């Protein structure tokens, strides 16, 4: 889990994704629509992608992508992020993490 922790670092929003995953694309688009600029790691396009995917699964990310970290904390996959949005909790979370300022 050290690799994931170091990749999340001090970044406000990090999304672990796969280029072929439509849910990853939807979650990324949603977060960008609020003005945030997430760091997106496409696991199928980076050399240690399978190792990172295994770490995400060990952390409880099932399915492994999308895995969204806001404020260096794992916040969930597509269902959880959409649920946060519907309950008007996503934008305040993005603000608290410093990802958006409005």
What does this molecule look like?
The chain has 102 residues and is α+β, with helices and mostly antiparallel strands. It has one domain (4-97): Glutaredoxin (3-Layer(aba) Sandwich), CATH 3.40.30.10. The protein has 5 helices and 4 strands, in the order H-E-H-E-H-E-E-H-H. It has helices spanning 2-8, 22-33, 49-58, 78-86, 90-96; strands at 13-17, 39-42, 67-70, 73-76. The protein has a 4-stranded mixed beta sheet, sandwiched between helices. The longest helix has 12 residues, at 22-33. It comes from Cicer arietinum. Its main location: cytoplasm. This is Monothiol glutaredoxin-S6.
Mean of all residue-level pLDDT scores: 94
* Number of structural units classed as domains: 1
Terminal Cα span = 33 Å
CATH class equals Alpha Beta
Gist of the model:
This protein has 102 residues and is α+β, with helices and mostly antiparallel strands.
Write the layout of secondary structure elements.
Blueprint: H1 2-8, E1 13-17, H2 22-33, E2 39-42, H3 49-58, E3 67-70, E4 73-76, H4 78-86, H5 90-96
Parallel strand pairs: 1-2
Antiparallel strand pairs: 1-3, 3-4
Descriptive tags:
5 helices; 17% strand; 102 residues; Glutaredoxin; GlrX-like_pln_2; alpha+beta; Thioredoxin-like_sf
């Amino acid at each position: 889990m050290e690799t994931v922790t170091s990749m999340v670092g001090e970044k406000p929003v990090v999304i672990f994704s796969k280029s072929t995953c439509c849910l990853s694309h939807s979650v990324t688009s949603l977060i960008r629509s609020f003005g945030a600029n997430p760091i997106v790691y496409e696991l199928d396009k980076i050399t240690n992608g399978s190792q990172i995917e295994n770490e995400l699964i060990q952390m409880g990310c099932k399915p492994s992508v999308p895995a969204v970290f806001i404020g260096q904390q794992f916040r969930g996959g597509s269902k959880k992020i959409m649920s946060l949005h519907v309950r008007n909790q996503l934008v305040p979370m993005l603000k608290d993490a410093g990802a958006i300022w409005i």
